Amino acid sequence: MVLLLSFDLPRNTKQERKQANLYRKRLVELGFSMKQFSLYEREVLSINTKNKLIQTLNEEIPDAGLITLYLLPDEVNDKQVTILGKNAPHYTIGRPRLIVF
Fold first, then answer.
1. What residue range is the signal peptide (predicted)?
2. Which residues sit in the known binding site for Mg(2+)?
């Protein structure tokens, strides 16, 4: 299954932009890959891992932030279609640097 994460963090002040950037870096450390600027995804293999990720995200979100999570079963994610333009960047999905048990 895939955990799809959408978030909205304020970016009006320099401090808010810094917090938002640190949070995006943290998502990558937790094994998420960026699909769009505020849309990230990560494959999760167990409910326990999903629950630990949700707990971590809840503890670390900036005070004015909003996160929406979608748990997509493999059947839905396997039917995903991505269309790239001629000059679109191609990303390689890496392994998470932090494993949550």
1. none
2. 8
